[in-house]
Amino acid sequence: MLTRPSFAVRESTNKIQIFKKFERKYVITPNYPTEGIFGGALLAIRTATFVCFYDWETGTMIRRIDDVPTSVITVLRFRAQ
């Protein structure tokens, strides 16, 4: 995961820009129309029929889930020391 501050902007249905420290790091141009994005440990890109999760650092797609979420919730786990 990128160090903070990092964020994504959905410029159009086929262009998502990833920024780190307010400078553009890379652009994801999926070959499907997107309807929304969600932040968290992974970047989630939602379409009308599925959601894809991308790695913040590389922009590589990690997983595709064939379901339509209305929101994505990130759960963090901490180890007791």
Structure, described:
The protein has strands at residues 6-12, 15-20, 23-28, 36-38, 43-46, 51-54, 61-65. 11% of the residues are buried. The mean pLDDT is 83. It has 81 residues and is an all-beta fold. Helices cover 0% and strands 43% of the residues. It has a single domain, classed as Thrombin, subunit H (Beta Barrel), CATH 2.40.10. The strands form 2 sheets. It has a 4-stranded antiparallel sheet, with no helix packed on it. A 3-stranded antiparallel sheet has the order 1-2-3, with no helix packed on it. It has no helices and 7 strands. Strand 1 and strand 2 form a beta hairpin.
Which radius of gyration do the C-alpha atoms yield?
13 Å
Largest sheet at a glance? 4 strands, antiparallel
Q: What's the number of extended β-strand segments?
A: 7
Q: What structural class should be given to the helix and strand makeup?
A: mainly beta
User: What is the CATH architecture descriptor?
Assistant: Beta Barrel
The number of helical elements comes to 0
Task: Give the SSE string.
Answer: EEEEEEE
Provide the CATH top-level class: Mainly Beta
Key attributes of the depicted protein:
4-stranded antiparallel beta sheet, 7 strands, 0% helix, globular
List the helices and strands and how they pair.
Blueprint: E1 6-12, E2 15-20, E3 23-28, E4 36-38, E5 43-46, E6 51-54, E7 61-65
What does this entry show, briefly?
This protein is mostly beta strands. The chain is built from no helices and seven strands. The strands form two sheets. It has a four-stranded antiparallel beta sheet, with no helix packed on it.
